[in-house]
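Q: A small favour: would you put together sequence and structure tokens for a protein?
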Amino acid sequence: MTDEPADTAATLPTDGQPDGAPENSAHDESVKAVLARLYADGRAYAAAEAEKQKLRAGIVGVGVRNAAIFATIALMLAFASIVALLIGLIIALSQLVGPLWGTLIVVGGGLLVTLLLLLAAKGCITRMKKAIAP
């Protein structure tokens, strides 16, 4: 075969340490260094994650702000359109029944629609209260 001696699978420790572990201080320092690196990496990861969440919160905040601005403008335009429609109805009716009666008909119709919407809202609230009652 070969003239070289065969390697053994395990060598016996000669320094009193189990399974060839290094002597006391070198092993402790490497564990300390690994733990210090782990701690530093954990802090860096947490800081990066905090910055990411701050950025996400900022993006969400800007999006909500812009949506609120657009919704407010849309509501104002819808209100202005309704006012314009009511004025147009008054003008159209004033040619048929006179300005006073046209105004009274439009205001009465508006109040009637308002009353019906409020009654529908009250019904929704009543149904909701019944549904959540113990």
